[in-house]
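Tutorial handout. Part one gives the primary structure; part two gives the three-dimensional structure as tokens.
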Amino acid sequence: MIKTNIKDPERVRKRQEQICRGAMKVFRRKGFHATSMREIAAATGISLGNIYDYIEKKEDILFLVHNYILSRIYRQFEEGVKASDNPVEQLRSVMRGNLQLTIQLREEILFIYTETKSLEKRFLTEVLKKEAEFVARFETLIRQGVDRGVFRCDRPGLFANIIVYLLTIFPLRGWNILRTHTEEELIEEVTRLILAGLGV
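Part two.
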């Protein structure tokens, strides 16, 4: 979706990921709108002239950041599913892995929630499509558990949306929760609530 001047896809992928990581350092400190391309170039270690070989404008980087974070979360889901062929253990593994990742990426996730409104329409459409696909993966997992008799759920689509929302509890509410609870307690309690809601 982003026009580049480089023909090698692997080189583009690596450079765009490098740009993402560098840009996030500045975005976390200054915010998206107050950050200049010169500051992003300095943070990435790529010259200002060369950075435009991999993007057209700063708004492209905002989409790359969204895409990078969402891709990491989705990969974690796939790893969790591979951990077992039992839907209960798959969901338990997915919840733990994704909650641990959202704790690790809490500042980045809070940033993309705040700045989603700044995405260009074509990028916003793509991000929302990816989020819908993520919800659908949970829905599929729930339906598989229902079919095998280990979950009870009349509205798998709605429940899948609730799960995805709860995965953001630490970035959105961690500032308050950590006053009285540990990260491990949070992971255990959210996982317990989800499984209990599915009749486990």
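Part three, for discussion. The chain has a mean pLDDT of 91. Residues 121-147 form the longest helix (27 residues).
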